[in-house]
């Protein structure tokens, strides 16, 4: 049960909470213990306060609806700030402000901002509580929605205080939606102080501080220091018909298919194959005693993209959201149902759109926001791996990088070696999506899908990836995939979703050293007949388009990467530009040879 009396004697924690309360002057400080009863009470209060709208509890037991502020529906990358002691440490891809200056500015914004309101003290653990990987954070927030979502997304409450004990080793997170004013919105990180201050947004990655702020930005900073990897990766378990179990981790940028891949259901021709989910967004990976790379999912829930989710594309996600789920910014009906673009059901005649306005079938506007989300406990997933909360994590056989590219990048490519694999991740391009504010559909370089989540300098991060080779005696193989190639009419050529199993099977076979591949100048690809396409609903032309390597496109790609490398600047590892030059020379040579044959 929540309590205004602190359920801890930890002097560091007590002093810090007192200091933050003095700054923000809440009427009440409420410590959360994470119990089921407490959750019910917080939900009841949130309903009274109109923060949550109950859905039809017969159809949607334990499910609630939340409209975020219209101006606050996605991550704000331009307002996300890394306050390392020097600008060089934050690097050229991050917005940097000197710590003293940012603290002063943030103090001004936080001063008195919780007046008349409650400050929820939300202790949480990222990672299974009994895992050596686990990290404790405390989020102080003025938002009951954030506190409740943290309850789903993390191991929240007493478990965290127990793990922390009397230590000072916790992430200090201060969050306030305050006036939700875009002009007074900043998501700031002080890695050297293990501190996150976020103000002016109540949305997802801006406000649930355990997720992108701690598990990735602060996490990546710690990982570099301590010799491990904190990555924007799903983790999936694949069991073959013979009972062989393997794990892969895959980095796709925001809204580029991680949740879907992690919950994949194989096509019916893949008799006996089972895919289970370990994690859908974040992986913390360390070298295990056996020399392999072991991964844990630091989260306890899914904060997933809703539009496009249906019983054909992602049945496990549909099952995961049938109970105890928060829906944010989808469309709702007056009788307590929900709908979104890409739902199985046809649009309702009328509904209330994500903005809270009346919406009619056939309207040109979307009813659900393209970045509308569900928050569901991972225990709801019928295909959860029994190792999802294993304190040791799971051993990774393959790492996969994949962007959203209408052209150039083939369906699948295996790197020649670790350095080439790091090159593929480092130069990954992807079209931007609705997961962040700003233009959608623009190709940008997104190294390891971490561009918005790096807690330090990009070049040093890539150096850290190269350095990991020496630390991993038994490394995973590295692959690049692209589910999003389009034809001239703008239609996806690869069916995707469950059919991605066909690519995954090749990746697993390659990782275990048992299938063929064709060497190209860009990497290894499946030779004709290597991909199992039995029963696939796609024309041979579509497959050819999905897997094509066009040397002209690649010459352009490799030349274009130069600009990205120039941006990274002097900390770019020299191997990566040599790799680029080698590939470019090979591609040019291949074009000359091909021209000579004509
Ligand atoms: P974040 O939670 O933002 O990190 O996103 P994510 O990487 O988990 O992406 P998610 O799986 O939610 O997918 C995002 C969008 O891509 C959804 O609209 C999906 O329907 C769509 N999508 C996922 N997989 C595929 C695929 O294989 N092919 C196609 N065409 N679309 C896909
Ligand atoms: C992403 O944008 O990559 C997400 C959603 O997973 S958020 O939690 O908002 O970062
Ligand atoms: Mn994500």
Polypeptide structure, described:
The radius of gyration is 24 Å and the shape is globular. The strands form eight sheets. Strands 1, 4, 5, 6, 7, 8, 9, 10 and 11 form a nine-stranded mixed β-sheet that branches. It has a six-stranded mixed β-sheet with strand order 15-13-14-26-30-27, with helices on both faces. The protein is built from 16 helices and 32 strands. 30% of the residues lie in helices and 22% in strands. The mean pLDDT is 97. Helix 11 packs across helix 16. By secondary structure, it is an alpha/beta fold. It folds into three domains: 11-51 and 75-226, Phosphoenolpyruvate Carboxykinase, domain 1 (3-Layer(aba) Sandwich), CATH 3.40.449; 231-299 and 388-589, Phosphoenolpyruvate Carboxykinase, domain 3, CATH 3.90.228.20; 301-380, Phosphoenolpyruvate Carboxykinase, domain 2, CATH 2.170.8. The longest helix has 24 residues, at 574-597. The site of sulfopyruvate (SPV) has 9 residues, from helix 7 and helix 8.
Short description:
By secondary structure, the chain is an alpha/beta fold. The protein contains 16 helices and 32 strands. The mean pLDDT is 97.
């Amino acid at each position: 049960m929540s309590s205004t009396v602190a359920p801890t004697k930890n002097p560091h924690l007590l002093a810090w909470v007192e200091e933050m309360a003095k700054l923000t002057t809440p009427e009440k400080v409420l410590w959360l213990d994470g119990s089921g009863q407490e959750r019910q009470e917080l939900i009841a209060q949130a309903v009274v306060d109109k923060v949550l709208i109950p859905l039809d509890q017969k159809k949607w037991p334990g499910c609630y609806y939340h409209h975020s502020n219209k101006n606050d529906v996605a991550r704000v990358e331009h307002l996300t700030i890394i306050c390392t002691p020097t600008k060089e440490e934050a690097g050229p891809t991050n917005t940097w402000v000197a710590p003293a200056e940012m603290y002063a500015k943030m103090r001004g914004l936080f001063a008195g901002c919780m007046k008349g309101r409650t400050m929820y003290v939300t202790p949480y653990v990222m990672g299974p509580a009994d895992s050596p990987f686990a990290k404790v954070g405390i989020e102080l927030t003025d938002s009951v929605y954030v506190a409740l979502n943290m309850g789903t997304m993390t191991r929240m409450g007493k478990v965290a205080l127990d793990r922390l004990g009397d230590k000072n080793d916790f992430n200090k997170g201060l969050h306030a939606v305050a006036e939700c004013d875009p002009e007074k919105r900043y998501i700031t990180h002080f890695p050297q102080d293990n501190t996150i201050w976020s103000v002016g947004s109540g949305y997802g990655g801006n406000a649930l501080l355990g997720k992108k702020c701690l598990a990735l930005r602060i996490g990546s900073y710690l990982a570099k220091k301590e010799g491990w990897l904190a990555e924007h990766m799903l983790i999936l378990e694949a069991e073959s018909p013979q009972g062989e179990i393997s794990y892969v981790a895959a980095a796709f940028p925001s809204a580029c298919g991680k949740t879907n891949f992690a919950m994949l259901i194989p096509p019916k021709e893949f008799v006996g194959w089972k895919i289970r989910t370990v994690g859908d967004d974040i992986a913390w990976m360390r070298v295990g005693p056996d020399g392999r790379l072991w991964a844990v999912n630091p989260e306890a829930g899914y904060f997933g993209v809703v539009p496009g989710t249906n019983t054909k594309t992602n049945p496990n996600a549909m099952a995961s959201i049938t109970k105890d789920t928060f829906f944010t910014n989808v469309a709702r009906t007056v009788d307590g149902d929900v709908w979104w673009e890409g739902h199985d059901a046809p649009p309702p005649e009328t509904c209330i759109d994500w903005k809270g306005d009346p919406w009619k079938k056939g309207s040109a506007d979307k009813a659900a926001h393209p970045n509308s989300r569900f928050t569901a406990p991972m225990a709801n997933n019928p295909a959860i791996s029994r190792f999802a909360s294993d304190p040791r994590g799971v051993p990774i056989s393959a790492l996969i990088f994949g962007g959203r590219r209408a052209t150039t990048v083939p369906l699948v490519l295996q790197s020649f070696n670790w350095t080439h694999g790091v090159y593929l991740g480092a130069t990954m391009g992807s079209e931007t999506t609705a997961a962040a504010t700003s233009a959608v559909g623009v190709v940008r370089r997104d190294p390891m899908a971490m561009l918005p989540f790096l807690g330090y300098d990009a070049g040093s991060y890539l150096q850290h990836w190269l350095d990991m080779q020496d630390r991993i005696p038994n490394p995973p193989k590295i692959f690049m995939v692209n589910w999003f190639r389009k034809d001239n009419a703008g239609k996806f050529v690869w069916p995707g979703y469950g059919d991605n199993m066909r690519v995954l099977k090749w990746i697993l076979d390659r990782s275990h050293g048992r299938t063929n591949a064709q060497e190209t100048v860009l990497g290894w690809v499946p030779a004709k007949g290597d991909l199992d396409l039995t029963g696939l609903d796609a024309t041979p032309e579509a497959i050819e388009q999905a897997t094509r390597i066009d040397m002209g496109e690649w010459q352009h790609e490799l030349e274009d990467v130069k600009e990205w490398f120039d941006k990274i600047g002097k900390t770019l590892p020299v191997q990566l530009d040599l790799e680029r030059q080698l590939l470019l020379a090979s591609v040019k040579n291949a074009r000359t040879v091909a021209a000579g044959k004509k």
